[in-house]
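Model the whole thing, not chain by chain.
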Amino acid sequence: MCDINKEKVFAAISTVIDPEVGFNLVEMGLIYDAIIDDACNVHVIMTLSTQGCPLHQMIKQWVYEAVEKLDGVGTIEVEVVWEPAWNISMADDNVKKALGGM
Amino acid sequence: MNPISRDFAPPLKLIAPFFHFGVIFYLLSMLALLFFEPTFSYQQMDVAGWIHLFLLGFVMMIIFGAMAQLIPVVLEVGHVVVDVYYVILPLLALGAVVMVFGFWMMPALLPYGGLLVLIAMIIFAFENIATLKKTELKTLTVETVAWSNGYLLLGILTGFAIALGLSGDLGIDVSLMLKAHVYAVLGGYVVLTIMGLSLTLIPMFSLAHGFDETAVKRAFKLVISSVAVVFAGAVLGFEWLMMLGYALSFAGIFFYMWQIYIIAKLTVRKELDVWAKSIIFAFVTLILSIILSILYFITDIESVLHASIWFLLLGFVSFFIIGHLYKIVPFLVWFERFAPLVGKEKVPMLHEMYSKEGASIMFWFTSAGVLLGGFGLLFESNILFKAAGSFLFTGAIFLYITMRKMLAYGE
């Protein structure tokens, strides 16, 4: 039985910080979902704040490495999607406040 | 999972010298301004020398370095031969220096400097065109990159013809060719490139999303057409055709400004860092430049045209570039020196990689200098213009210091 759950995956990914804005990917609202099956294989569905982001590949890699640190994790897939497009309403209040959005 | 893809990203050691030399040329341009008077003619060789020091040494140098980094981001493919940038830099730097000395001291040097610049730009344009052919993307920005490179080639060829004309090696009408050259390089390459980059960079750094692009599509079409029309009018000697081209340019710039307004309304990030302040100042000076150019067409007063061009070059173009240096350079340094350490040790945030105080001093001195210089030219006031030179040179020193520190961060 797999003891990895969505909360653990999100907690692991929250160690990944966007160097431009200074917030982690989870509080930015960039991580849409994490699907974990019985064999502890993890499928992360995420987006980026901009499609032309030059850090695209690196951020995917960092998410992969963060999830890889979870004990007992199986295969990991990180999928970047553009629908729904990210917007500031998806971010936590502290991010909105710090960026001046509220 | 595949290892990190760094294939598209040119190494820092290739790009950093473009920014380093570009800022040195900017510093020299601002120093040289101290020796100019606010009354002049564009036919003066010393003025032409200063314009080439500024445009080739600073504007083109930085744009070329930035394009080495941004072309793969915009086109989503790697450069065909990224190593050509190692050749472009010395050719462009040396060509700019030889041309400036040609204008200032020895016109016979002009074709030699012109030839070096011509080779540098042909290599740059052909490498870009070859890279463009690799991409399957058909976005507006991609199309703009293609057009701007075409105009760059036209601009540099006319420039080389002028260099031959001035040195007495070619019998051409220099004044007609000059208008074609200025419009192809400034309107066709610099302005079009900045418009294209705006659409990628401004939403990226301001976190603006979901905006309609109709206005900028119209802007691109109008500016692309206007450059072709003015170029044809200048080469054929048809004044009416050039006036039609100018009108198309105004319409294009109007739609561009409208697009920027749409993006600004959707901007999430409200903090006023040096990038945001520079971009705001750049657009304020663009508006000033447009108002003055319209005024020039009504009044035909030469000083109004000088002030308009000043605000366009030292205000809009300079601040657009300088503002983005404080975003792009930290990113490049971070990507090279700190990205591999993510998850292993604490890494700095991008905004921690430059001195906020130094950048702020740079901004206030430079913006004050731009305003003083513009009004100095408008009212032909020597005191205002000299004060502007001092402010701009001081601002340039702070730009140079902050840039050096950014490039050396974490070395």
